Amino acid sequence: MTTTRQHPYPPPEPRPEHTSHSGQEHGHGAGHGHGHGQRANAAAGHGHSHSHGPAAPVSKHLRKVIAAVLIPFTAAVVVGLVVLWPGGAPAHQRSGVGFDRQTQQATVAKVVNVDCKSVNASGQAASGNASGAASSSAQQPEKGTCKKATIRVDTGKDKGRTFTEIVQPDQSRQLHEGEKVVAAYEPSAPRDLQYSVTDVNRRFPMALLAGIFALAVVVVGRLRGVMALVALAVSFMVLTFFILPAILQGSNPLLVAVVGSSAIMLLALYMCHGLSARTSVAVLGTLLSLALIGLLGSGFIGWAALTGNTDDSTGLIHGLYPSIDMSGLLLAGVIIGSLGVLDDVTVTQTSAVWELHEANPSMGRRELYRAGIRIGRDHIASVVNTLVLAYAGAALPLLLLFSIAQSGVGTVANSELVAEEIVRTLVGSIGLVASVPVTTLLAALVVAADRPAAEPVAGRSPGAAAPVPARSGRGRRRKR
Fold first, then answer.
1. Which of 44, 192, 393, 442 has its CA 20 to 30 A from that of 145?
2. Residue 8: which residues within 8 A CB-CB, separation 6 or more?
3. Low-confidence ranges of the chain (pLDDT < 50)
4. What is the pLDDT of residue 320?
5. Residue 229 has what pLDDT?
6. Which of 467, 469, 437 is closest to 450 using CA atoms?
7. What's residue 21's pLDDT?
8. Contacts of 35 (CB under 8 A, 6+ apart)
9. pLDDT for position 61
10. In this structure, are residues 286 and 346 in contact, taking their beta carbons and an 8 Å threshold?
11. CA neighbor of 260 nearest in space, from 245, 280, 250, 281
12. CA-CA distances (angstroms) from residue 179 to 77, 174, 202, 203, 207?
């Protein structure tokens, strides 16, 4: 049957409320590429009324194409999880250094003021929190009023045991009666020195803040908010029970990060946005962008000779587990850190293209791409700035030290500690920038290529010819 261009149909009569919206209205909208008027507005109104959730293309062919890509990828992720699953963190003997210490919960039972001169003369010195600051304070002139705190251990085998802590007046953290603290325990030390205050117990305010966050998400997001919280919990579970233990077991950090990030991406996106073609396009865009980030990160981390061992934490990890590839761990961090922002960008771009199609079904793939990319440019401008400021905020004390030393920009950027953050920021930003055109193009191709079957219009006989959406909004194609 040949394709012909027909004059617009007369305005349709009002349709009953139970009419299916599986694509009939979009078929009418697409058929009026040369005469929108009231009927284009009707199509746009219909698109708005049904835009509360992701809409999968009706075309079975498109569903098959998307499934042909995602099903093998999902199967590969599942196989990776099974093969690399660590079965728990390896056995470990605590070193007593830094975070690798035994700790117990404790309470400040009593605080009294004492003369610093008499305390230092008797040989008692502050310990525990900020031990470096405490030791330096003890070497300063013996003057002022110190605090002598009695701490009661609340957990562990020594529950009820007390020890004393001397707090110098210039220490940043002062102890107060009734305050909940964390006490470090060193069994090999003399009995009087086995316990020391190492931190404040912040569990209640942190839990309260988390509760406020969860409440805000549920109140504003409703069911979507609940699913987002579930997806967040699943992400933490994958990170805690798979990614971290697998790296400690000696698996390749990059491979573990790729498999773990892919699992998080699939679970989070489909749980939050539903099993639909719209979500599948976002998954494909995220996957392609993550692949680009992995390639760029691997190349530039090796080219810049970044070891990934730049501070006390990474040094301790390398000392405890020398077999861990620290540069691979750095690249894994880049991939995992970029995933969260990538999800936001790809989902937003996909939704934007879908809503543009809902509002004006006559738009072809080029028009959809151009409109979507205009939205993406604004999004990218804010997201890249957010990434840079986030890293700068986290490294603010380090940048302040360089400023005090009056180091030049070139000297600061060349240091490995700062170079790591620069590479991390730029590689992640390149992936984010690339995700906008990639995801927008995928979404435009999928939406424009969709060909839902036309349904009979109310008031028209079943045998009458009905308009079917044409490619790129250029006329109408009759059913064969």
1. 192
2. 31, 32, 34, 35, 39
3. 1-58, 123, 125, 127-141, 453-480
4. 76
5. 92
6. 469
7. 40
8. 8
9. 67
10. yes
11. 245
12. 47, 10, 10, 12, 17
Q: Give CA–CA dist 375/53, Å, rounded.
A: 20
Enter the tokens of residue 32: 């009026």
The structure tokens listed for 387 are 């990434």
Largest CA distance in the chain: 105
Give pLDDT, residue 88. Answer: 65
CB-based contact 152:107 (threshold 8 Å): yes
pLDDT for position 207: 93
Type of residue at 459: G
Cα separations (Å) of 163 from 77, 147, 180? Answer: 52, 14, 14
Which tokens belong to 346? 């790809």
Which tokens is 151 given? Answer: 């701490």
- Six token digits for residue 421: 């953050």
Q: How far apart (Å, rounded) are the C-alpha atoms in residues 304 and 419?
A: 8
Query: Following DSSP, what letter does each residue of 170-230 receive, concatenated?
Result: T-S----TT-EEEEEE-TTS-GGGSEEEEEE--HHHHHHHHHHHHHHHHHHHHHHHHHHHH
Task: Determine the Cα–Cα distance for residues 248 and 251; give it in Å rounded to an integer.
Answer: 7
The pair of three-digit structure tokens given for residue 462, joined into one six-digit string:
């079943």
- For residue 364, what are its two tokens? 């072809």
CB-neighbour burial class of residue 386 (10 A; exposed 0-12, middle 13-18, buried 19+): middle
Rounded Cα gap, residues 458 and 460, in angstroms: 6
Tokens 């405490």 sit at which residue? Answer: 134
d(CA 277, CA 218): 25
The secondary structure of residue 457, as a DSSP letter, is P
For residue 395, which of 418, 416, 379 has the smallest C-alpha distance?
Answer: 418
Q: Can you read off the two tokens belonging to residue 314?
A: 């990474």
Residue 71 one-letter amino acid = I
Do the Cβ atoms of 345 and 379 come closer than 8 Å? yes
Is the CB of residue 268 less than 8 Å from the CB of residue 231? yes
Cβ atoms of residues 107 and 181 within 8 Å:
yes
CB 261 within 8 A of CB 335: yes
Do strands 162-167 and 195-200 pair parallel, antiparallel, or not at all (unpaired)? unpaired
Give the Cα separation of 211 and 215 in Å (integer): 6
As given in the structure block, the two tokens for residue 128 are: 């525990």
Q: Which residues of 221-234 are buried (b: 16+ CB within 10 A; e: fewer)?
A: eeebbebbbebbee
**Rg of the chain on CA atoms, in Å:** 31
